[in-house]
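Design request, tokens follow.
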């Protein structure tokens, strides 16, 4: 499931940030942290 989220980070980031373009400026480390928080929730 994590692999699927990494394939489509816009889904996870979209839940946290309304701005769609924000996914382009988020660092991989930050994105991984968001993925962990999302999966833990």
């Amino acid at each position: 499931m994590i692999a699927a989220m990494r394939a489509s980070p816009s889904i996870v980031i979209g839940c946290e940030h309304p701005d769609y373009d924000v996914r382009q400026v988020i660092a991989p480390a930050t994105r991984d942290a968001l993925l962990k928080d999302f999966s833990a929730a």
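Comment from the thread starter after seeing the answer: thanks! The mean pLDDT is 62.
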